[in-house]
């Protein structure tokens, strides 16, 4: 009978498989138990969705795990939700914060659940950029006073009879509509809507040699691939951006900083001290970001490579 | 039946005048536009807020500030969170994550594959069991076993809760007309409100973690289970119910012995749709730290690594196809509950033992626990996808750019100018008139109410811009739906080849193809339209194909015998007879297009989509994002009610 034959085959196969065996689970030593003695505990690290942040977070996480024996839980979150995590106790640290004065006011001053933990040493620059081929061909485009001369070249299906100024990631505050109006530029702001779209647009503009001007920022891994050129706007002076509708000056240079939850700071553990002391340069971050973005290394491997090449810097963070 | 025949001559008489009237209204609009355009357009710049938006911000802040003191949080939300967290963590421990002090999950890959194949066979058939086993092995070969199991665990948890809550609610809605009326708008709301709007509040209520991700998923996934259960119960033939009532059955007996068994097949379809909807949320849930394949997609996109994103997206498609085919086969089996073969019972037991043996081995031995990394095809898939993308970006750009400009200048820009530059009262008057002509008085009333609320959101002009894109996208969806749907409906071979592609279009996360689309069409409204068409066209095509195939063979034969050419057969017989399917396709296509508005906002659509995305990213824009989400819901309800009122299936409604 058919069924008996199938049954026999099944039983035999099952028996054969159980008999043949192999290495059993748990026979080899379990990894990662070596550093369990250190008094660090769990460290909840928010990871915001851009590569520069990931580079910083990866290095901090690597050092915290390897040198301090912490259990690092990385949480992939947008900025706003990370800050919210301070209030609910789910996030201990944000390690690359771009301004966000409104969130500082809300969580540091009003709810008192977060505290600032100093600069990362990175300088954030925001502005208008053009692909390198354009800057080479028309060097005077890098001055905003000449932008109207080129407006016609930047016309697209989205901007009507004006030049298109491509704005990007909705995560960052932009003054571009006010800037266009107050500098009397013949441009229309078009919202690309995501960093992905913005980078793709610039990449395509450089490879196809098509005109494009848009909002961008550094440090950013993409600048290592295509070194975009920044257009100068009227210099930033303190308070020149006080009235959002009347802004006619460049964006301020952001001192990128670290924010930690109050609870985490008060506990004053080794992980907090590491976050507080952490400091590096834009070049440092760009190296790690390049490992991740262009060399396709995992964040942990990229961090390991950088830490091993820069023992002095790491030692300074651990000393304090 | 009698009602339909009586109504026929009357509606035929009306139909002669209706298109003329509609055309007249549209013509009057264009003529009026010339002198009045630019007046009362209710524009609002992206950075500006209305008092309503500020008020919504304040509400959000108040909730956040009171989270730790309010008893509602301490005893209600926190309990729900803990229960769901426990469920998801349990499933992850079982199949995905190292657990119970072991370096591997309880069940390794061999156990999961064996169990999935066994369950597929028991509830489905041999074919789907093989497909399921093959699909799951493929996940391992792609190098994404752990991620896939994380996604599966989260999806299973969301689906289980959806069914636990959704099926009883669906039964209730099936039995009570009043509850049905009450819950329908709530379901519309759950399905069209963009997820981005409630992600941040959810993490405020349920904290960051599996609970929030599961709840975000089930808000979107539960409505199909409720709708289809209710639909199943309502479709049970009244004579069956009367028969049981005359036999003196209690309400309980009636439900469990008659209504539920007779609507089982529709309920299984609801389960199927719920699973599909849950899988479509994988990437969005990753934005609040949901583990699994979504994270791989999102991470890869940060470095514009299309290949890696595609590999992970493909794994989601594989999971979706396996789960879809298995539940569909289970549904078909439910329908044919004939006496099973005598051999089945011993076979069930024996294969059960075999599956259990596999589970035991995957618990015990390393080779069966961790997917061996000797065979990997993930890298090859990524490289292949990269090569295709780069080639397309380099060689197709001239063509795609021309297509983009053609559609934008010839269709989109004029339509958008008409909608956004007309005074609001003109657009509102035209919309109400059209609704009255197409859908009748009730549709006109709903339209007027939706328009009033749209003005209330403070985002009128953005809503009109989004509406223009929605109309163009829906037109393209219908064009594809009719051409491919008729082709597939007439030819089984074409159907077999095209269908998996359609499944992929529906389940491949949009995030994966955004990069090549932006490269080909730039960051424009047209890119947003193309993304919406990729997602929405498959539904329309499937419905049209289904409609064309549903036409009785005798009718087609008669027309062929009478000497009709193929063209005549299609235009005079098949399309008119599939009219109800065409309406349904347009309706569903439209809803799917609207659900892509936010994704469009990520690639240059601006308007409501951008408002929602920005609201998710910047706290001071939160209220505006919420209002934009509401505006999308309003557009959806308005268009849906007009389409439904005009659809022929509606004439036979009511009890």
TrEMBL record, chain A:
Keyword Signal: yes
Record-annotated membrane-spanning stretches: none
One GO CC term, this protein: ATP-binding cassette (ABC) transporter complex
Ranges for domain ABC-type glycine betaine transport system substrate-binding: 44-308
Gene3D superfamilies (alphabetical): Glycine betaine-binding periplasmic protein, domain 2 (3.40.190.100), Periplasmic binding protein-like II (3.40.190.10)
Example GO molecular function: transmembrane transporter activity
Signal peptide: 1-21
The keyword Signal is annotated on this UniProt entry: yes
Keyword field: Signal
CDD domains on file: PBP2_BCP_2 (cd13643)
InterPro entries: ABC_Gly_betaine_transp_sub-bd
Descriptive protein name: Glycine betaine/proline transport system substrate-binding protein
Organism, scientific name: Actinoplanes campanulatus
Organism placement in taxonomy: Bacteria, Bacillati, Actinomycetota, Actinomycetes, Micromonosporales
TrEMBL record, chain B:
Main location group: membrane
Bilayer-spanning residue ranges: 20-36, 72-91, 103-122, 128-145, 152-175, 195-221, 267-288, 308-326, 347-368, 424-455, 467-490, 510-541, 589-610, 622-643
Keywords tagged on the record: Cell membrane, Membrane, Transmembrane, Transmembrane helix, Transport
Transmembrane helix as UniProt keyword: yes
Compartments, as annotated in UniProt: Cell membrane; Membrane
Repeat as UniProt keyword: no
Gene Ontology cellular component terms for the protein in this record: ATP-binding cassette (ABC) transporter complex
Matches recorded under InterPro entries: MetI-like (IPR000515), MetI-like_sf (IPR035906)
Entry's Gene Ontology BP terms: choline transport; glycine betaine transport
Protein family according to the UniProt entry: Belongs to the binding-protein-dependent transport system permease family.
Name of the protein described by the UniProt record: Glycine betaine/proline transport system permease protein
Source organism of this protein record: Actinoplanes campanulatus
């Amino acid at each position: 009978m058919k069924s008996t034959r199938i049954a026999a085959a099944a039983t035999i196969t099952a028996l054969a498989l159980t008999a043949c065996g192999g290495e059993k689970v748990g026979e080899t030593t379990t990894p990662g138990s070596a550093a369990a003695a250190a008094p660090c505990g769990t460290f909840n690290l928010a990871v915001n969705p851009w590569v520069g942040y990931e580079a910083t977070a990866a290095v901090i996480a690597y050092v915290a795990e390897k040198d301090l024996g912490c259990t690092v839980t990385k949480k992939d979150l947008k900025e706003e939700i990370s800050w919210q995590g301070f209030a609910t106790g789910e996030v201990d640290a944000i390690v690359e914060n771009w301004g966000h004065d409104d969130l500082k006011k809300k969580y540091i001053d009003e709810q008192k659940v977060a505290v600032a933990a100093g600069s990362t040493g990175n300088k954030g620059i925001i502005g208008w950029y053009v692909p390198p081929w354009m800057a080479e061909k028309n060097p005077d485009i890098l001055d905003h006073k000449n932008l109207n001369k080129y407006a016609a070249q930047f016309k697209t299906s989205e901007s009507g009879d004006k030049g298109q100024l491509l704005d990007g990631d909705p995560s960052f505050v932009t003054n571009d509509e006010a800037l266009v109006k107050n500098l009397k530029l013949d441009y229309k702001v078009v919202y690309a809507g995501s960093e992905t779209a913005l980078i793709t647009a610039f990449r395509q503009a450089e490879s196809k040699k098509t005109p494009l001007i848009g909002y961008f920022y550094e440090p950013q891994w993409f600048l290592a691939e295509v070194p975009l050129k920044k257009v100068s706007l009227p210099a930033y002076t303190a308070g020149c951006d006080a009235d959002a509708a009347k802004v006619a000056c460049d964006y301020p240079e952001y001192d990128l900083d670290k924010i930690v939850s109050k609870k985490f700071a008060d506990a004053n553990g080794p992980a907090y001290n590491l976050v507080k002391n952490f400091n590096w340069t834009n070049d440092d971050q760009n190296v790690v970001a390049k490992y991740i973005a262009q060399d396709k290394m995992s964040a942990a491997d990229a961090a390991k490579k950088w830490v091993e090449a820069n023992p002095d810097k790491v030692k300074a963070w651990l000393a304090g | 039946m009698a009602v339909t025949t009586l109504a026929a001559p009357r509606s035929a008489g009306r139909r002669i005048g209706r298109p003329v009237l509609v055309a007249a209204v549209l013509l009057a609009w264009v003529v009026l536009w010339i002198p009045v355009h630019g007046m009362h357009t209710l524009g609002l710049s992206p950075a500006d807020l209305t008092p309503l938006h500020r008020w919504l911000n304040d509400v959000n802040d108040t909730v956040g500030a009171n989270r730790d003191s309010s008893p509602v949080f301490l005893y209600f939300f926190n309990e729900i969170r803990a229960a769901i967290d426990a469920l998801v963590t349990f499933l992850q421990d079982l199949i995905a994550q190292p657990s119970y002090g072991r370096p591997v999950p309880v069940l390794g890959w061999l156990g999961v594959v064996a169990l999935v194949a066994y369950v597929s066979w028991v509830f489905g058939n041999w074919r789907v069991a093989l497909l399921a086993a093959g699909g799951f092995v493929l996940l391992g070969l792609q190098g994404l076993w752990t991620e896939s199991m994380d996604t599966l665990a989260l999806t299973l948890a969301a689906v289980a809760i959806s069914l636990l809550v959704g099926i009883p609610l669906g039964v209730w809605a099936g039995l009570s007309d009043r509850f049905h009326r009450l819950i329908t708008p709530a379901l519309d709301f759950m399905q069209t409100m963009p997820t981005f709007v409630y992600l941040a509040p959810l993490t405020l209520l349920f904290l960051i973690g599996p609970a929030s991700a599961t709840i975000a998923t089930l808000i979107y996934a539960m409505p199909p289970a409720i709708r289809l259960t209710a639909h199943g119960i309502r479709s049970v033939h009244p004579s069956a119910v009367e028969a049981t009532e005359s036999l003196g059955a209690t309400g309980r007996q009636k439900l469990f012995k008659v209504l539920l068994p007779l609507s089982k097949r529709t309920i299984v379809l609801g389960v199927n749709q719920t699973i599909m909807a849950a899988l479509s949320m994988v990437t969005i849930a990753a934005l609040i730290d949901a583990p699994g394949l979504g994270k791989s997609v999102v991470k890869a996109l940060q470095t514009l690594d299309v290949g890696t994103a595609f590999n992970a997206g493909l794994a989601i498609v594989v999971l979706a196809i396996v789960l879809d085919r298995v539940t569909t086969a289970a549904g078909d089996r439910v329908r044919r509950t004939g006496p099973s073969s005598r051999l089945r019972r011993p076979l069930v037991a024996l294969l059960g033992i075999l599956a259990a043996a596999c589970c035991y081995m995957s618990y015990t031995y390393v080779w069966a626990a961790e997917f061996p990394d000797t065979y990997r095809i993930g890298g090859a898939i990524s490289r292949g996808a990269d090569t295709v993308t780069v080639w397309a970006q380099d060689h197709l750009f001239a063509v795609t750019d021309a297509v983009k400009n053609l559609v934008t200048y010839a269709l989109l820009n004029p339509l958008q100018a008409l909608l956004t530059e007309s005074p609001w009262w003109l657009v509102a008057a035209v919309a109400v008139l059209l609704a009255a002509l197409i859908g009748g008085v009730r549709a006109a009333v709903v339209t007027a109410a939706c328009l009033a609320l749209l003005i209330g959101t403070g985002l009128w002009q953005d809503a009109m811009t989004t509406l223009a894109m929605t109309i163009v996208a829906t037109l393209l969806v219908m064009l594809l739906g009719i051409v491919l749907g008729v082709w597939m409906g007439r030819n089984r071979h074409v159907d077999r080849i095209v269908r998996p592609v359609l499944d992929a279009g529906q389940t491949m996360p949009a995030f994966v193809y955004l990069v090549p689309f932006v490269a080909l069409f730039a960051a424009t409204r047209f890119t947003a339209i193309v993304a919406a068409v990729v997602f929405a066209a498959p539904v329309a095509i499937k419905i049209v194909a289904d409609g064309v195939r549903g036409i009785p063979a005798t009718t087609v034969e008669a027309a062929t015998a009478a000497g009709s050419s193929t063209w005549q057969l299609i235009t005079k017989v098949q399309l008119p007879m599939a009219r109800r399917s065409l309406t349904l396709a347009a309706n569903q296509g439209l809803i799917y297009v609207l659900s892509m508005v936010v994704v469009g906002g990520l690639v240059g659509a601006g308007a409501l989509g951008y408002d929602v995305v920005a609201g998710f990213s910047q706290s001071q824009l939160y209220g505006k994002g919420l209002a934009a989400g509401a505006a999308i819901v309003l557009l959806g309800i308005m268009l849906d009610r007009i389409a439904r009122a005009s659809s022929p299936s509606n004439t036979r409604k009511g009890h």
